[in-house]
Amino acid sequence: MEEKIYTIPLLRAKMAPRTRRAKKAVRLVREFLAKHTKAEIIKIDKSVNEAIWARGLRKVPSKIRVKAVKIEDEVWAYTPEAEVKIEKEKEEKKEKEEKLPPEETKEEVKEVEEEMKEEQPEEETKEIEEQREEAEKEAKEIEETKEEIAEEVIKEEQPEETKEVEEVKESMESEVKEEKKEEKEEK
Q: Which end of the chain is more exposed for a tag (fewer CB within 10 A), N or C?
């Protein structure tokens, strides 16, 4: 972990339109730190952002002092007065890692878990198969009852339809007979 304090000139930000000066200043801080620390990832702390925006969007400072903390390929930018939170975060991570069991116990835990998984599927598959069979039986019963109901409905509807059809047939036949009689009489 490297720490270094830089004074970053922000005069070029004042050449930007008034409504974009603060954004330009933040971009200049990023570019400066990327160039001087040779890091790809630049993270700017809230304290630096507040220092840039202290007098508003249009009146950015002409220069700003920044404390750059480099960790691997990542740079955090703070104002020198700001409290560095990175060290606390790293300490918390180390404490969490220390609380984890050693690798040997991890392997034992994995083996026990695998054994439990192997035992459970047999019991679970039996239960699942039984549930599937019951569901299939219920589905078949439902289909059968649907078919029965449909047949009953069709049977109930058919006699009425057949009566109507027979009446229509009879009336048509009688009309045809009458027409034939009339034709014979005319001849």
A: C
Cα–Cα distance between 32 and 165 in angstroms, integer? 95
Whole-number Å distance between alpha carbons of 56 and 62: 13
- In the block, tokens 């801080």 appear at 29
Domains plus CATH for the chain? 2-84 (3.10.440.10)
Q: Are 17 and 57 in contact (CB under 8 A)?
A: no
Strand segments, DSSP code E, in the chain are 2-9, 41-44, 63-71, 74-78
Residue 28 burial (10 A CB sphere; 0-12, 13-18, 19+): buried
Q: pLDDT tens, position by position, for the chain (187 residues)?
A: 788 999 999 999 999 999 999 999 999 999 999 999 998 899 998 899 999 999 998 999 999 999 998 888 888 888 888 776 666 666 666 666 666 555 556 677 777 777 766 665 566 677 777 888 888 888 888 888 888 887 777 666 665 556 677 778 888 888 888 888 888 887 6
Are 6 and 68 a contacting pair, CB within 8 Å? Answer: yes
* Under 8 Å between Cβ of 50 and 26: no
Strands 63-71 and 74-78: antiparallel
